[in-house]
């Protein structure tokens, strides 16, 4: 339970920091247009990084403890 809560809180606290995906992967920057906005690239919040772990932990808790366990973790966070 604590691991799930810590990951959720960590994602919320670092969520305001931004990074550019192309720089992280070491590839050329994407330059595309969407709905008339030119020169877009993949700038993401750092908070997206821990969420796959949170998602997997929710599935693990659901498998072992059922709906009550997931509901408890949801209320805890």
* Termini separation: 10 Å
- Main sheet properties: 2 strands, antiparallel
Total strand segments: 4
Please bin the fraction of helical residues: 55-70%
**Strand-and-helix sequence, N→C?**
HEHEEEH
Mean pLDDT: 81
Features:
single chain; 77 residues; alpha+beta; two-stranded antiparallel ribbon; two-stranded antiparallel sheet; 3 helices; elongated
Description of the molecule:
The structure is a single chain. This protein has about 80 residues and is an alpha+beta fold. It has one domain. The chain has helices spanning about 1-15, 20-25, 50-75; strands at about 20, 30-35, 35-40, 45. It has a two-stranded antiparallel ribbon with strand order 1-4. The chain has a two-stranded antiparallel ribbon with strand order 2-3. The protein starts with a helix and ends with a helix.
